[in-house]
Amino acid sequence: MATETTGVSDPKGRRQDVMALWIGIIASLLFTGIIWISAPLLVDLENTFLPDTGYEWYFWKLPNPTFWTRFFAWSTYLLHQVLIWGLIYYAQTRVRKYSTNLHRVNYYALAVNALFIGLHFLRTHTTYDGLAQDTSIYSSQGSVIVLLVGILIIENQTRGLFFGKKMPFKKEVVRFLRKYHGYYASWAIIYTFHYHPMAVTTAHLWGFFYTFLLLLQGSLFFTRIHTNRYWIVVQEVMVLFHGTLVAYSTQQTGLWTMFMYGFLFMFVVTQMYALGLSKPVRWSIFAISIGSALVIYSGLLFQITQNPLTEKTWIDLNEIIRIPAILYGLSFLIIPLIWGPLWVASKMRT
To answer: pTM of whole model > 0.85?
Structure first.
């Protein structure tokens, strides 16, 4: 099978993949700004929504959906998904090598994602609804959790899992995840992208900006920037800010600290070991993290601010380990779940 040639090199020797990344980040900010300035166009519609009944209820959906509102939500999602899966397959069978230049398929992926960002915006301002109308809020959150677990397993060989120590994960499983993770990652990101309408709240704006960056990462497959350790850590750490901001802005008292310190725990224990930081720097980050937790969970911050969202006691300290327990636990659980079928398949071939 013929192999696609790499894009033309920049005559000044600049890396196309790095330029594409920075242009994509700027475009993501611009897309987010367009959503923000469109807020007045949605006020009358959102005033008709049913009242929020709690954490399991998703507020931003039509009270009376129709066939056409569902059709546009699901058809644009499915078309977006199938096109990106097709481009990933094309890249794996025709490109098959990493480059600092963009391959032709990268331009196609960038164009497809930009097109569906525009269609999503148009859909929000016409039929409004996303996939949230027909699916559970846990499906969107769960898909992202499994994606984060996959990254932990894949990056184990370069940065370790606990304080730089590598876990003896099955090599067959790691190879499988490296080869096929793009299909799952694109599903988790595109499904989450189409789950929400482009509502104008702090949580939605930050969430869409974050999702735009993930779509950008998914468009740059088989380029060196796609595997850049610093860029990977940036994307992982952004979930710390996203989760914390969403929980705080929605006044979920018990969750903002869980997200903040849970994902900070992941950075201190695992992710920062990809950055080549010196011991003094790592110890400084560790000390600052511990010190800030003591300020919050001792009740000192609440005494200063008198903000009910900051009211914490030592009993609440268990929040810190909830997210790490889930992510690390799933990391060890997924290994045998994948290795079992791979082992059976290998025996059937022999």
So the answer is: yes
